[in-house]
Amino acid sequence: MSENHFATDCLHAGYIPKSGEPRNIPIIQSTTFRYESGEAMGALFDLEAEGYFYSRIQNPTSDCVAARIAKLQGGTAAMLLSSGQAANFFAVFNICSAGDHVVSSASIYGGTYNLLAVTMKRMGVECTFVDPDCTEEELNAAFRPNTKLVFGETIANPALTVLDIEKFAKAAHGHGVPLIVDNTFATPWGCKAFDFGADIVTHSTTKYMDGHAAALGGAIVDGGKFDWNAHKDKFPGLTTPDESYHGVVYTERFGLEGAYITKAVVQLMRDFGATPAPINSWLLGMGLETLPLRMEQHCANALAIAQMLQKHPKAAWVNYPGLPDSKYAALVKKQMPHGTCGVVSFGVKGGRSAAEKFMAGLKVASIATHVADAKTCVLHPASTTHRQMNDQELIAAGVSADLIRLSVGIEDVRDLLADVENALAEV
Questions:
Q1: ω before 276 within 30° of 0 (cis)?
Q2: Angle, nearest 10°, between helix axes 351-360 and 413-425?
Q3: Could you tell me if 317 and 347 are in contact, meaning their C-beta atoms sit under 8 angstroms apart?
Q4: pTM over 0.90
Q5: Which of 180, 311, 363, 395 has the maximal Cβ count within 10 Å?
Q6: What's the CA gap between 377 and 396, in Å, rounded?
Q7: Predicted confidence (pLDDT) per residue in 121-170, tens digit
Q8: Residue 105's closest CA among 17, 169, 29?
């Protein structure tokens, strides 16, 4: 049987109902599951059988949607979490512990930067941040003997830098570690990160994948190709016995295709409990059904806004990776042939005060601490999402003090253009 195309998988992957079963993924709103015998449940606790016993660890609704995302992203296994932040934490902590080191692009979401630079540092995991546009020599110089992974974002939030996945993957693999890529802005529709060398992909499904600002969520997808056994000493959590599960060795029991996600589910989810509610997983599944339609509209609208701003006398600068003259145009063409995202960043002449006047003049777009959903919204990152950074850290993250992040929705583009024009007239 031939493979279905992406739009078809958005509707059908992960759940094929049998005769007389619900056509949509059912919402299994239950914390627990009944079994006929203690032996049957014991087999689940020993990881010797498949099934469900407690929704803090796994739930059928969530697993169906995770399987859909795995198919869309091109991975071998996936899991859902309660937020994108939880997904990035689990993805890193699944193979890192106290005394380990991470190499990360400096141009990432402020919350993730804080996670790596502050919170995980308190846990004994150190991080070296590098310019995503650095040379191969500069990138390789950041590695240490205790480096366990490399991290980056395909399209950085909000700087909109585009990660050269192949360059970062080459460096990671040359040092025997995986590349973890946050693909939130590009989505699986825009970027097949595994095709360019990424090993693990994370998502804040709260954004485009849900698409309606209705449900928090995150996802981790394993490409299933990184050879943990070839670097056994670096990854003992996957390649040596886990005494909390009677000595199971994840790579032996579940293979390269399933070891990483299985460990994250049965160990980290068991202990941290960053579990999505079944209704949130269901809402995510519904959102995925229209992902390609929405992304096409997001990208078309954003390009129109960016091109208008390029010509506007009150715009100091404009940054959108989908612009033909973007510094990342060649990289975008290779890694994201269908499109990038709906987020445009720009500066208003006059700096911070002018930016505030612009935002106050918007009528269709709303000021909101969100991005990448169906409705247009606007934010000033330096005073909100990235306010924990000092001026030097802001510059390193690609966030200037005058940067405005405009998340372009799927409204009629004529209304959006008029809204931006009218707001700029107030500056």
A1: no
A2: 130
A3: yes
A4: yes
A5: 180
A6: 25
A7: 999 999 999 999 999 999 999 999 999 999 999 999 888 999 999 999 99
A8: 169
Beta-bridge partners for 317:
347
Residue (of 101, 73, 106) closest to 87 by Cα position: 73
Q: Is the pLDDT of residue 283 over 90?
A: yes
Sheet with 315-319, side-by-side order of all strands: 315-319, 343-348, 403-407, 377-379, 366-367
Judge whether 325 and 167 are in contact, CB under 8 Å.
no
> In angstroms, rounded to a whole number, what is the distance separating the alpha carbons of residues 404 and 34?
52
CA-angle at 154, arms to 152 and 159, nearest 5°? 85
Please give the single-letter amino acid code of residue 267. Q
Q: Which residue has the tokens 């595994």?
A: 194
d(CA 239, CA 247): 11
Cβ atoms 358, 426 nearer than 8 A: yes
Report whether 324 contacts 180 (CB < 8 A).
no
Helices then strands (H, E): number in the chain? Answer: 18, 12
Span 27-60, pLDDT tens digits: 999 999 999 898 888 888 888 888 898 999 999 9
